[in-house]
Write a structure and sequence with these properties.
7 helices, 12-stranded antiparallel sheet, globular, about 20% helix
Length: about 290
């Protein structure tokens, strides 16, 4: 396994401290605070450690309460709310410096048979031949502060290939939709919980981008402050994070300094495997003081 993928696998693991207490470390993807996807993935791993392996997570709902400190470990306090005949419910609070930074609830379900239907995968080009975000980043890396170049230049554990690459610094106004292929950059262990936690981690990459697109706003241009406020996710079927997945996202609404985006994730054969929704702060920045 590539070292960068092994690092992510280890990052998503949590150390059990007590019956319901777990602890995780923090990584650095170049964001000023702990990446929200990391806390999602670790909270899911902590919750799953208290659930019978025959039950898989089918939904999770989370609120980001405070910015996370990348230099401090995170404690995950799991509340075993309910163990029912078919469903198991867990609540997790992530704590740093004695304060909750994240609140999370997840539901696990035994495997059952039933009627089924799903929306069709959009007709977009496949991942073969598309440039990855890492490759595209090399052309504008010189424009970011030196303190960020090392992190942004480093090889990534999740390979993302945008279907329609965007101008990172001066994007023209565009329809609020973004499609990208993603997968782990190397083969992963056969652990379904790890694959679900890694998809939860990856689902936070660029989910709010469609909400910025109609307004020509960009994370890198510095004309908007974007912070995830909440995140919801539903798992519809089995998948592997080391196979290509299409992440199609759209934003039906933005207003009041907030933006809302939703996404669907498909296996390469067109099968819908997960759905996502997120609301985030979208505060316009007009001066360096506001950015601080």
């Amino acid at each position: 396994m590539k070292p960068v993928v092994q690092e992510l696998v280890e990052l998503l693991q949590v150390e059990q401290l007590e019956h319901n207490l777990f602890r995780g470390v923090s990584g650095d993807i170049g964001s000023p605070r702990v990446f929200g996807g990391q806390v999602l993935g670790q909270a899911l791993m902590a919750a799953a450690r208290t659930v019978d392996p025959s039950r898989r997570v089918h939904s999770l709902h989370a609120y980001f309460l405070r910015p996370g400190d990348k230099n401090a470990r995170i404690v995950y306090d799991v509340d075993r709310i309910r163990d029912g005949g078919s469903f198991t419910t867990r609540r997790v609070v992530a704590i740093q410096h004695g304060q909750p930074i994240f609140n999370f609830a997840a539901s696990f379900h035994v495997k059952e048979e039933g009627v089924s239907h799903a929306s069709d995968m959009p007709a977009v080009p496949g991942p073969q031949g598309l440039a990855s975000e890492w490759e595209l980043r090399q052309s504008w890396l010189h424009k970011v502060p030196e303190t960020l170049r090392g992190v942004l230049h480093a090889e990534t554990a999740i390979e993302i290939r945008p279907v329609q690459p965007l101008d990172a610094f001066n994007p023209p106004p565009a329809a609020p939709r973004n499609d990208a292929w993603l997968r782990a950059a190397d083969r992963l262990p056969d652990d379904p919980v790890l694959h679900q936690a890694m998809l939860a981690y990856s689902s936070d990459f660029g989910l709010l981008r469609p909400a910025l697109m109609p307004h020509g706003l960009s994370f890198y241009k510095g004309n908007v402050q974007v912070v995830s406020l909440d995140h919801a996710m539903w798992f519809h079927g089995d998948f592997r994070m080391d196979d290509w997945l299409l992440y199609t996202t759209e934003s039906p609404w933005a207003g009041g300094a907030r933006g809302f985006s939703r996404g669907q994730i498909y296996a390469q054969n067109g099968r819908l495997v997960a759905s996502v929704a997120q609301e985030g702060l979208m505060r316009l920045v007009r001066s360096p003081r506001e950015r601080a």
